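Standup notes
- DV: blocked on the single-chain target, sequence here:
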Amino acid sequence: MRVTVTGKHVKLTDGIKGYTEDKLKKLGKYLDEDTEVKVTVSAGKNRQKVEVMIPNVNGHTIRVEEEQDNLYPAIDLVCDKLSRQIIKYKDKFKTRVPGNFSIRYEGIEELAQELDYEVEEPEVVIERRKKFNLKPMSIEEAILQMNLTDHDFYMFKDRESFEICLVYKRKEGGYGLIEQEV
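- DV (later): unblocked, structure below
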């Protein structure tokens, strides 16, 4: 398992990096040694945020984040969340993409017991379906439409590329754009 820790608006000390790597290394017995784990530590107004992303777990991306007043509890909580996700979805990861494994399945039951975590398979229920016509528009028009409909996101077809995109309101303020990877 390769852990990369980067900082955003925060000076990363050896202590922060070491603590983060040590906490995540405990999960190393459940992740393949080639698995890349990306950690981003950022600081805001009296809040510390830790994001962990594992980009290719049997063809899926695992991402967890935690925000706290203090950085070290945020690191602890994000590692617990990550452990729970690995436990919760281990069977789905096992069966989805044959030949592309990032999770080691031995010992996951012990991890679940250690965390006192019971795996419940929630039933996926689609409560509502919605269809609408994606008319080509600019990003600015999409943001205007999003604001006019008082939603936090808006899906549209880009006027220039004709790709499906999504604009959204960011918690920190401003907007984000999600584009289809080609």
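- Follow-up: The longest helix spans residues 71-96.
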